[in-house]
User: What shape does this take?
Amino acid sequence: QIAPSMLAADFLHLDKDVEIVNENADLFHLDIMDGVFVPNISYGFPVVEAIATVARKPMDAHLMIVHPEKYIERFARIGVSMLSFHLNATDKPAQTLLHIRETGMKAGLVINPDMPVDSLYPYLHLCDYIILMSVYAGFGGQKFIEHSIEKVKELRKLINETGSKALIEVDGGVTFETAPRLVKAGVDVLVSGNTVFSAPDPEQAI
Ligand code: DX5
Ligand code: ZN
Assistant: This one.
């Protein structure tokens, strides 16, 4: 599946980029940053609500915020289908995953490049998907960290061994060069911001 990251969209003509995703891609990847968990601020509820009114593909919100548990109900009410947060953003990851599932959304756990795949093990049975960051969360347009390919293979193995049904999503530096290698390593969902929206023809790029 392809999940274009709306962080790289044209915010003055968001309707145009939303339509490109509706027509050509699988999910809307929505990056929510609070300037505390990551050193950047992106956009919040007004933008997500606006996209929700016209989205015909599921919305996949990636929370890069502290206290993600505080906003679960609100994202559910807006109509987000998939909600993920960083493992080290809360001291209650299991409870938070359960709470997300209770609202009917799919629950995802995210780790940055410096966190080992093993750290996911205790929570894997509560996850509908895992996001492996292939850049450090906070900014679009960064260079892919090569070690991510090994982590995908490792996670694929762990998922197969444990019988988990979690999908593997990779986020950051996904390009025409890294995408095929990621898919070969076992990725299910590719997030892509700049490769899609900075392309001369985003539809073609997807
Ligand atoms: C980074 C975000 C990504 C970002 C990806 O913190 O989580 O979703 O928008 O952008 P590209 O594809 O440009 O690396
Ligand atoms: Zn993201």
